Amino acid sequence: MKILSRLQVRKFQFFLKCDQIEPLSKRFSSSFSNGSSFSSSETDWNGKVKPFMDDGYQDNAAKIDGMRKTVYDVCGVLENGSWGPAVEDALNSFDEMSQPEVIVGVMKRLKDVNVAFQYFRWVEGRTEQGNCAEVYNAFLMVMARTRNLEYLEQILEEMSVAGFGITNHVCVELVTSFVRSHKLKEAFGVIETMRKFKFRPAFSAYTTLIGALAEANKPDPMLTLFHQMQEIGYEANVHLFTTLVRVFAREGRIDAAISLLDEMKSNSFTADLVLYNVCIDCFGKVGKVDMAWKFFHEMKAQGLIPDDVTYTTLIGVLCKVGRLDEAIELFEELDQNRSVPCVYAYNTMIMGYGSAGKFDEAYSLLERQKRKGCIPSVIAYNCILTCLGRKGKIDEAFKILEEMRQDAAPNLTTYNILIDMLCKAGDLQAALKFQDTMKEAGLVPNIMTVNIMIDRLCKAQKLDEAYSIFSGLDHKVCTPDSRTFCSLIDGLGRRGRVGRIDEAYLILEELMQKGLTPNTYTWNCLLDALVKAEEIDEAQVCFQNMKNQKCSPNGMTYSIMINGLCMIRKFNKAFVFWQEMQKNGLKPNTYTYTTMIVGLARAGNVMEARGLFDRFKASGGIPDSACYNAMIEGLSSANKAMDAYTVFEETRLRGCRVNSKTCVVLLDALHKADCLEQAAIVGAVLREMAKSQHATRLP
């Protein structure tokens, strides 16, 4: 078969991509000068101008058309039958099977990675020369489309040995396909596998994945990729540094964020306005207000002019931590330099005044905004209503609502704020009546309205009313979401009665039938309910179901399980959960530590309890009375009288109460160990406790 030129191959690939054959180019000439190289016989054709067409070009077009037909026929064979001798015989009947263009064309249309792999290997065996780089890249694209990485390591290893490269387009598609489907772990794995076989992933592949990890708040893999980019020679930019700083600062990892800023400066990058705004926002929100101020002054020193975002962000940060005077000063600085008020700054300042309970100042700011020719928006009024709701000022809120109607029409958020206030106050009838007013205004209650009412009713233990609203929902108009189900499960579960827990189970089942996924909070509500009802075996089944549903338990989940198992004295099983919790990188809280220490001590596992007790204190934990008493009794029972006495002294120094029973157990252990001096001190404490108890009983 005649080998196609590079130009013809490119045209063929273009035709395959477009899924059509473009009309052949034609060159016409309607008139010729005497110097024309065309004869009259060539130009005169039945009295018309004869089109000139290269015969070779016609041949090439025919070949391209033939190859396109071959591609479709091969795909038909592969997609309509399982791989076997019959399929191989059918493939052997095609004359053009060895052409890379045909193989690539077939790969572009296959939707099953296993079929593509079998075809890939069959072609390789038939040609006895191995596939070319284009075919390998085409197969990688099949993996990207199908999001199946089963053969990735195998293919990349072969490409590495053969010296083939991965095109930037293929690299980006492999990563992007998993990013689009929110499979960030797999996308990260693609880049790691490429690096394993010494490939250089595309710059866009890195930045795409870093951006996706930023949205998912996963700073550590982001930083790994960032450093990897630098190692292979890619130059970082201010935008990348900004993305990383934002995520680390937002997570409260200030040292890492500052380290990135220092690295950026050492690389001679100049921070821009966006980066400074990000730093002010993120550092401020995690309580580092002085650092936010530092960035504000630094940007001005660098010659950058703070914009509305800068001012509004810092004003919001200052209001949040109660530094209202500084916020006012900054607001005035912004407002005096503007002819038109900054609406966002006004709204933020109004919210700040409201949160501080300074409603007169908030109303004054509304009037000032009007005097400047700017009518306050519904958002400004909603800010005031939100703050009034937090302070429980229902009557004042409804007065503001009437004033609001003169400037702005109340929106759905306005009604939801007021319904929430009424529900919190326990005035269900008023909330329902106000909901009717909302409907009369042409607004349809949304799922947020429903969630507010159900959640507040559940928390007020009015479960029948909450369930009535849920069961009366018109799902065509208002579809329950995960928060609706969570509120009900939490409310029903916290009653701690088996009957109600059964209802909670039914709601969980309905949630899953609707295609919604229970989150960790939902499972924790159900587990807590089961533990309170002492249904510990059922709680363990529920815990396993949670993991089967790919929902990761958090620290609270393990705390609930450990507490439940300790309640029924299954301390060793509780310790298994404790170890699993530690293995998963979760940090126990004070309650979990105390529960586990007390459980181990009472079970006689004193050394494990002591080790846990010491680690708890070393990590900054402060044991409570229950924890101290359990340790004293456990060490005393284990014939470690002096260790128990040391904990006894520490308990008294901390100001924690030592139980009389604990003193008796310790006193007995000290006598047995001939620690008479210490026994005398404990005896004296015991006598003082007896006198104190006797005095409180006197009339």
Automatic annotation (TrEMBL):
PPR repeat feature ranges: 202-236, 237-271, 272-306, 307-341, 342-376, 377-407, 411-445, 446-480, 481-518, 519-553, 554-588, 589-623, 624-658
Protein family according to the UniProt entry: Belongs to the PPR family. P subfamily.
GO terms of biological process kind: chloroplast-nucleus signaling pathway; mitochondria-nucleus signaling pathway
Xref: SUPFAM superfamilies: ARM repeat, HCP-like
Superkingdom of origin organism: Eukaryota
Protein name: Pentacotripeptide-repeat region of PRORP domain-containing protein
Keyword annotations from UniProtKB, A to Z: Repeat
GO cellular component, one term: chloroplast
Pfam families tied to this protein: PPR_1, PPR_2
